């Protein structure tokens, strides 16, 4: 069955916004990387199942993002040493095609940002691999005591709140005077960031979330589809 004309028009509009974007923002967990950072950290610290259950509740919308983050971290209570060891022993796995896509965006002079509800220490590692400047990374900051023990997280970061990704995009628009910004991600928090993002592209290459797939005007399962679109510039 052919899609209604209005949806077709909106799909082509979304593609056009992507081609002329001044900045593209990516979610990280299950988008830029294959896994969910907090679940990997929990597994590494031996509390995987308990944390996965809270993640499931959070995704289902039965608790706020900050509450879910707090509860999961209270169970994990990772030390600085454990986080460093996780990054060394189990570095985040980049999603196929992301390196080429980010390179191409940079070649087109499109700024690239990583906006994540995950942890800055892990996201910075990813940014470095993709040649994304660290001041283009927005993520949650873990806190540690002098002896390296877990001391909580920085609750003042916009990414610690529900709706935080949209707040970051609004801030970036103001700071850099961007007129056209695109958000790309797999989850509901990414979809909610549009507006203020001018367009949202749903990504299902690692995990398909039905509510995102249904609502995204443009939904892709590989970064190759986005690369192909950039060839038209």
TrEMBL record:
<comment type="function">
    <text>Catalyzes the last irreversible step in the biosynthesis of L-serine from carbohydrates, the dephosphorylation of O-phospho-L-serine to L-serine. L-serine can then be used in protein synthesis, to produce other amino acids, in nucleotide metabolism or in glutathione synthesis, or can be racemized to D-serine, a neuromodulator. May also act on O-phospho-D-serine.</text>
</comment>
<keyword id="KW-0460">Magnesium</keyword>
<keyword id="KW-0718">Serine biosynthesis</keyword>
<keyword id="KW-0028">Amino-acid biosynthesis</keyword>
<feature type="active site" description="Proton donor">
    <location>
        <position position="29"/>
    </location>
</feature>
<keyword id="KW-0378">Hydrolase</keyword>
<keyword id="KW-0479">Metal-binding</keyword>
<dbReference type="InterPro" id="IPR004469">
    <property type="entry name" value="PSP"/>
</dbReference>
<dbReference type="InterPro" id="IPR023214">
    <property type="entry name" value="HAD_sf"/>
</dbReference>
<dbReference type="InterPro" id="IPR036412">
    <property type="entry name" value="HAD-like_sf"/>
</dbReference>
<dbReference type="GO" id="GO:0036424">
    <property type="term" value="F:L-phosphoserine phosphatase activity"/>
</dbReference>
<dbReference type="GO" id="GO:0006564">
    <property type="term" value="P:L-serine biosynthetic process"/>
</dbReference>
<dbReference type="GO" id="GO:0005737">
    <property type="term" value="C:cytoplasm"/>
</dbReference>
<comment type="pathway">
    <text>Amino-acid biosynthesis; L-serine biosynthesis; L-serine from 3-phospho-D-glycerate: step 3/3.</text>
</comment>
<dbReference type="InterPro" id="IPR050582">
    <property type="entry name" value="HAD-like_SerB"/>
</dbReference>
<protein>
    <recommendedName>
        <fullName>Phosphoserine phosphatase</fullName>
        <ecNumber>3.1.3.3</ecNumber>
    </recommendedName>
</protein>
<dbReference type="Pfam" id="PF00702">
    <property type="entry name" value="Hydrolase"/>
</dbReference>
<comment type="similarity">
    <text>Belongs to the HAD-like hydrolase superfamily. SerB family.</text>
</comment>
<dbReference type="GO" id="GO:0000287">
    <property type="term" value="F:magnesium ion binding"/>
</dbReference>
<feature type="active site" description="Nucleophile">
    <location>
        <position position="27"/>
    </location>
</feature>
């Amino acid at each position: 069955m052919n899609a209604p004309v209005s949806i077709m028009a909106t799909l082509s509009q979304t593609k056009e916004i992507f081609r002329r974007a001044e900045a593209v923002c990516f979610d990280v967990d299950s988008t830029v990387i294959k896994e969910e950072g907090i679940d990997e950290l929990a597994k590494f610290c031996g509390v995987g199942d308990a944390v996965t259950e809270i993640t499931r509740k959070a995704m289902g919308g039965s608790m706020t993002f900050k509450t879910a983050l707090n509860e999961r971290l209270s169970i994990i209570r990772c030390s600085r040493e454990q986080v460093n060891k996780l990054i060394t022993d189990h570095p985040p796995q980049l999603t196929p095609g992301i390196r080429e896509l980010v390179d191409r965006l940079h070649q087109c002079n499109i700024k690239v940002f990583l906006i994540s509800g995950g942890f800055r220490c892990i996201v910075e590692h990813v940014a470095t691999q993709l040649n994304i400047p660290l001041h283009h990374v927005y993520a949650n900051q873990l806190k540690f005591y002098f002896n390296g023990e877990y001391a909580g997280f920085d609750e003042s970061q916009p990414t610690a709140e529900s709706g935080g990704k949209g707040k970051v995009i609004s801030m970036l628009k103001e700071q850099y005077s961007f007129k056209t910004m695109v958000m790309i991600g797999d989850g509901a928090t990414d979809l909610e960031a549009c507006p203020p993002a001018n367009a949202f592209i749903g990504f299902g290459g690692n995990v398909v979330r039905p509510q995102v797939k249904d609502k995204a005007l443009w939904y892709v399962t590989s970064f190759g589809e986005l690369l192909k679109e950039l060839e038209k510039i």
